[in-house]
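Structure (tokenized):
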């Protein structure tokens, strides 16, 4: 039996497990001449991209319009000439998808797709552009999917629980999204997005694992991004073997800081207990990749953090964990004696401090900094950059050369003194 996740606010589906399974299977057994089956074959060789996914911020002017040149600069900075992101995820939570309209969601997706396409020509590794298609309504979500297909996205991401008029996620993903693929005559890999913070009012906090299992049987559903606690990620990783049905199903950690815990090898008695608890939670299945919003400001540092976590290098894990935690502290202020962290505002401020962008405007409704906090952040961030250049390995401090037309500088061997 798949592990349970939160069911708060959920209503029971009108279609049962058995009938749902029959629906999905029958859809896959249609005549081989159909567009759907032809499209299924086109995904036979697709393997989910492992590594670092950066949910890119959206650069806006004071009227909320996307600044295209600066948006392109942000994508190029995140890629770092191949030393940064493996995946650029456009129009996600960090991209303020829920505070911009569909035309802007589609604009940032198009820009990401175009920039990743250019980068592939010179990068030594594969880079993918994932388009977030989630909107507040079913119709706008479908419109975003159709746009992603025509724009040439490598994959799409949807958060079914964030769509207000979608009652049953599995039905929506199979019938509505599958219908678009059938009409288009081809499919894109689709990744689910589970984040309680953006669930629509009245919806469950997390997707039911039974629904994920149903959706995973579809030939185009290839994984899930989980922004949640270690326990919730464990629910999915323990059930991962049940999700796989003829193709790989990848789980990406959306709570990015957890990778230092999940990959930590045991040392002392306490660490051994944590290590075995992690192995129990995840059934020895580690995340396939990490989706790190803070990597907008530190793409190379996060890429290297992912690498050293995967290798289990304890010393380097501590080094990069410290640098990354220091950035979180840099972004945290006190208001009314409580911690206040305007994440998106600080990410945009970081990019402005480095000269990547000129506008650090956030969308209406996004938490921001006051003037005093902005000045304090500027000083803190400068100190952090100096510390990273001193302490981290050479070549793994994110660089930007504004004179090169908003293109990231090549790997600087002298970026740090260590390594």
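Design, position by position:
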């Amino acid at each position: 039996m798949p592990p349970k996740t939160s069911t708060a606010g959920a209503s029971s589906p009108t279609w049962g497990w058995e009938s749902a399974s029959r629906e999905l299977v029958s859809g896959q057994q249609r005549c081989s001449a159909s567009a759907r089956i032809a499209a299924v074959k086109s995904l036979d060789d697709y393997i989910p991209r492992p590594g670092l996914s950066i949910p890119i911020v959206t650069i806006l002017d004071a009227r909320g319009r996307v600044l295209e040149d600066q948006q392109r600069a942000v994508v190029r900075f995140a890629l770092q000439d191949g030393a940064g992101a493996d995946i650029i995820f456009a129009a996600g939570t960090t991209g303020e998808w829920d505070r911009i309209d569909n035309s802007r969601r589609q604009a940032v997706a198009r820009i990401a797709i175009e920039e990743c396409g250019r980068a592939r020509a010179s990068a030594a590794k594969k880079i993918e552009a994932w388009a977030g298609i989630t909107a507040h309504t079913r119709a706008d979500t479908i419109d975003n999917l159709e746009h992603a297909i025509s724009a040439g996205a490598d994959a799409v991401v949807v958060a079914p629980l964030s769509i207000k008029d979608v009652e049953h996620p599995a039905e929506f993903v199979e019938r509505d999204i599958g219908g678009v693929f059938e009409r288009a005559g081809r499919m894109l890999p689709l990744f689910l997005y589970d984040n309680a913070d953006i669930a629509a009012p009245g919806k469950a906090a997390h997707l039911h694992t039974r629904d994920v299992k149903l959706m995973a049987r579809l030939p185009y559903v290839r994984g899930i991004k989980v922004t949640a606690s270690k326990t919730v990620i464990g629910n999915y990783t323990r059930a991962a073997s049940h999700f796989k049905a003829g193709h790989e199903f990848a789980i990406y950690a959306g709570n990015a800081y957890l990778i230092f815990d999940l990959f930590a090898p045991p040392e002392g008695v306490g660490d051994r207990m944590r290590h075995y608890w992690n192995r129990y939670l995840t059934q020895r299945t580690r995340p396939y990749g990490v989706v790190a919003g803070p990597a907008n400001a530190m793409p190379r540092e996060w890429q290297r953090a992912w690498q050293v976590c995967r290798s289990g290098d304890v010393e380097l894990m501590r080094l990069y964990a410290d640098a990354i935690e220091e950035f979180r502290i840099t972004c945290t202020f006190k208001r009314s004696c409580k911690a206040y962290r305007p994440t998106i505002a600080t990410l945009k401020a970081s990019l402005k401090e480095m000269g990547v962008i000129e506008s650090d405007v956030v969308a209406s409704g996004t938490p921001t900094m006051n003037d005093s906090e902005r000045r304090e952040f500027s000083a803190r961030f400068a100190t952090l950059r100096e510390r990273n250049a001193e302490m981290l390995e050479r070549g793994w401090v994110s660089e930007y050369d504004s004179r090169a037309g908003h293109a990231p500088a090549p790997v600087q061997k002298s970026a740090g003194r260590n390594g």
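Reviewer-requested clarification: Residues 17-313 form a domain with the TIM Barrel fold (CATH 3.20.20.70). Residues 1-41, 275-284, 405-417 have pLDDT under 50 and may be disordered.
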